[in-house]
User: Which sequence fits this backbone?
């Protein structure tokens, strides 16, 4: 009888962990979408060169404004900055991957440019 109780408890814990993971992935996806939208907004509002830091800080401020006041002690601006940096790096990596695929389609394998060492 004890084994049945232990199995029931483990099953409940498994459901809780899986539910938590599902909620985390759903929330993480929404946050990344929001961050990507704010990055696009900053790209539209800030034009010109050497404004990367201003764009970044604007996105940090916009996203931090969305954090409810009672959660701000748990999610400082440094955390928001890390979220934005992570979302940007993921987007950049995806864009590079897609660009590489396009280049591979355009440049035929037998026509690829060989890299020569710089002398």
Assistant:
């Amino acid at each position: 009888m004890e084994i049945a109780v232990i199995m029931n408890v483990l099953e409940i814990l498994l459901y809780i962990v899986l539910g938590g993971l599902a909620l985390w992935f759903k929330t993480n996806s929404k946050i990344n979408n929001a961050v990507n939208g704010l990055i696009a907004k900053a790209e539209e509002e800030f034009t010109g060169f050497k404004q990367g830091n201003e764009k970044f800080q604007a996105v940090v401020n916009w996203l931090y404004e969305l954090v409810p006041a009672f959660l701000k002690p748990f999610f400082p601006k440094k955390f928001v900055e890390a979220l934005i940096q992570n979302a940007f790096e993921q987007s950049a990596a995806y864009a590079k991957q897609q660009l590489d695929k396009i280049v591979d389609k355009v440049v035929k394998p037998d026509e690829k440019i060989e890299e020569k060492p710089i002398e």
Summary: The mean pLDDT is 79. The CA atoms of residues 110 and 116 lie 16 Å apart.
